[in-house]
Amino acid sequence: MREWTIQTSGTAEFTFLLFDRFSNQVLANALEPLRAANTFLRRPAFSWNIVTLDGAAVQSSAGMTVVPDGALDPTDRGSALILLPSYGYQALATDALSRQLRAASRRYTSIIGLDGGAWLLATAGLLDGRRATIHYDEIEAFSEAFPQVDIVRQRWIDDGDRLTASGAVTAFELMMHLIARRHGTALTIRIATLFAAPDATTPGPLEPPGGDRRIRRALAEMEANIETPLPLGQISQRAGCRQKDLERRFTKAFGAPPRKVYQRIRLNAARNLVEETNLSLSEVATRSGYENAAAFSRAFRETFGLSPRAARLR
């Protein structure tokens, strides 16, 4: 089970490997959530660079030229190598590329295949015995070509250190999943609002593991009732389940009980008020559902690693 905790330090380093005829939309959907996360967290929680196999510029399927930061370096390491082929990717699956990808899998914590990326990973043997997905148009061909891969008709798949997504919209969803895994669902709620993506009450990028509607409803109630927090019993009732059931669902999905998740949502709102407004800290505490300013300051420090006053000064 993954623990639902905020990461107060460290930067996740992503390398995007582009190929000719990559999709502009897939790239944007994968990059922009990371940029937004840094904006909201006010620190470089994520960094990225764009590379090609030889360091030469590539053209997207729409004809946009992208000049990379360099070539795929055989010594580079990082949190994830993200493959982004969109058209003609079967022709890219050469022995030379497979060797490079197998070597990269030993240097990067995760390997991610977006759009047609799963095909390249499977060719390299990096999906053997793994669950994976690919663009829906290629499901049948993929299954025939790689019987050793457990192909699933799903929008995106997280199989530990191998992740795959089936297209442009699902690339956004997968990146939101990765952000939530490190920094919590409350942050992805803010990012979804920024991009006018579906909110916590509708299926989409914020959908919890398993598509649990009761969790979505509970999250929506928490987000809507920050200044005057609702009792968990009332949230459970509005979510359509018993409190013990809701606690079980949250612990399974986020590794934390609903009380802790609710606190994080309130403190995220508080941090925004601290950094974006001139409200007094006592007023921020009140608007975040804290009657006691000392208790608010203590919870803020425990969550973000600094006091509300220090966050404002920074």
In short:
The chain has 314 residues and is of the alpha/beta class. Helix content is 46%, strand content 15%.
Describe the structure.
There is one protein chain. Residues 1-8 and 198-210 have low confidence and may be disordered. The chain has 314 residues and is of the alpha/beta class. α4 (139-145) links the parallel β8 (131-132) and β9 (150-151). It has 2 domains: 12-180, Rossmann fold (3-Layer(aba) Sandwich); 208-314, Homeodomain-like (Arc Repressor Mutant, subunit A, Orthogonal Bundle). It is globular, with a radius of gyration of 21 Å. The chain contains 13 helices and 11 strands. α1 (24-41) runs parallel beside α5, α1 crosses α6 (185-194) and α5 (168-183) runs antiparallel to α6 (185-194). The strands form 3 sheets. Strands 5-2-1-6-7-11-10 form a 7-stranded mixed sheet, sandwiched between helices. A two-stranded antiparallel sheet has the order 3-4. Helix content is 46%, strand content 15%.
Shape: globular
- What's the order of the H and E elements? EHEEEEEHEHEHEEEHHHHHHHHH
Largest sheet: 7 strands, mixed
Could you name the CATH class of the largest domain? Alpha Beta
- Poorly predicted segments: 1-8, 198-210
CATH homologous superfamily of the largest domain, by name? Class I glutamine amidotransferase (GATase) domain
Mind telling me the C-alpha Rg? 21 Å
What is the spatial order of strands in the main beta sheet? 5-2-1-6-7-11-10
CATH fold-level topology of the largest domain: Rossmann fold
- Helix count, per DSSP? 13
Strand content: 5-15%
Structural class by sheet pairing and helices: alpha/beta
Domain unit count: 2
